[in-house]
Amino acid sequence: MFLSDIDIKKSVESWDIIIEWFDEKRLQAASYDILLWNKFLITDSYLTPIIDPVKKILPKTREIHIADGEEFVLHPGVSLLWFSWDYFGSNHYLVQLSWKSSLARIWLVVHNTAGLINPWHFLNIAFELSNLNNVPIILRPKMEIAQITFSKLSSPSSKTYDKVGRYHENNWTWFIEKKVD
């Protein structure tokens, strides 16, 4: 069962759902719109001859910071990891990331594989942005990029993410740092 806007708001107020800087204007009928952050990772293809996940040969990436009010042009065929401005999660609900239909219609892919956030996992989610269009798409920090929904579990989970999660010790933890204005 998905939570409605009324239940999302109640759960945020009771701290059953954490959404840092919750903005009621972004609350939809059964979802919450989340924004792009100012930081993203792009693969330096000239430094990455191959990627071999089994041997832990990962792409060479660099962090890019885009100031508020500036724009980034995502060219056709380019993919990158861009993070959400919103830090969120819940101990009680399964959170699911979904595309915004307006962006899906211009062939901006928001995520390919990592759309589920297990209970007990709190994060600035990494968007797997890809431009499948044949023309560039302009992206801006703080633009609405995706939406999250919340599903009630049939019973409390026996495993918590803090015990089964595997991303706590690898190189992706940098984006969890606290944002300061």
Report on the architecture of this protein.
The protein has three helices and eleven strands, in the order αββββββαβββββα. With 181 residues, the protein is mostly beta strands. The protein has one domain (5-176): Deoxyuridine triphosphatase (dUTPase) (Deoxyuridine 5'-Triphosphate Nucleotidohydrolase, Chain A, Distorted Sandwich). The strands form two sheets. Strands 1, 2, 3, 5, 6, 7, 8, 9 and 11 form a nine-stranded antiparallel β-sheet that branches. A two-stranded antiparallel sheet has the order 4-10. The radius of gyration is 17 Å and the shape is globular.
Largest sheet: 9 strands, antiparallel
* Count of runs of 4 or more consecutive helical residues: 3
Give the averaged pLDDT, no decimals. 86
Annotated CATH architecture? Distorted Sandwich
Rg, rounded, reads 17 Å
Strand content: 35-45%
How many domains? Answer: 1
What distance separates the N and C termini? 36 Å
Q: Please, what is the CATH homologous superfamily? A: Deoxyuridine triphosphatase (dUTPase)
Order of helices and strands: HEEEEEEHEEEEEH
- Helicity level: under 10%
Give the overall shape, derived from the CA principal axes. Answer: globular
Low-confidence stretches: 163-181
Q: Total number of β-strand segments?
A: 11
**The CATH class:** Mainly Beta
